[in-house]
Design a protein that fits this description.
Blueprint: H1 14-27, H2 43-48, E1 70-74, H3 78-82, H4 103-112, E2 116-120, H5 127-140, E3 145-148, H6 167-172, H7 175-180, H8 206-213, E4 222-227, E5 237-242, E6 245-247
Parallel strand pairs: 1-2, 2-3
Antiparallel strand pairs: 4-5, 5-6
Amino acid sequence: MVEMSNGCICCSLREDLLIEVRKLAEEGRFDYLLIESTGIGEPMPVAATFDFEDEEGQSLNSVAKIDTMVTVVDALNLLADFNSQDLLAHRGQTAGDEDNRSLANLLAEQIEFADVIVVNKIDLVSGVQKQAVISAIKALNPVAEIIEATQGNVQLKKILGTGKFDLEQASAMPGWARELEGKHTPETEEYGIESFVLRSREPLHPQRFAELMDSDIPGLLRAKGYVWLASRPSWGGEFLSRGAREHA
């Protein structure tokens, strides 16, 4: 086991990751390497590290490849955390003084990017709550394999040697992007979750949009897209929401 601390695995610790993975791979003693980031780690930058080239033009892809991206979900607390307004700083978990990410957005990104999602603590929730958790996950990532677990007990063959990971597909096709491309998965409707895409050639009314951002929308799980406001017709902005509060 090699521990890397006091930094971000995809920025200040990237060089350490490059060195350690290459060293372990070249030893030829291991079949698999499991990289476990912190709970506040974003999976996309970690995966992109394998494509990162150093000053000599070398990348980790020449000695190792990503096989599976796994996200572990706390079935007992997911829905409450997803609908909270907490920033990571409120939970005492940040990547630095300027880290102003919200807990719910991070959870959504971790779920959207995964190939396999382990729903842990399944023994601590009711059947109704389990169904709600599963439905939320399927809405965010309709293609990932979902594994129910107790005390993190998962068969290794489910997370090692699966061959599921595809960087281009993973980064471009989270649940909301699939909706924009018309690739709707009816399975989510089975759990009472519906989705829609709003397309308009007319700019949005800035005041009404601001009021929407400041309001709570009951039942909202996730929204994402681009915004064009009438007050700034030459500008485009990104719209991102989760839980009950909007951000742009």
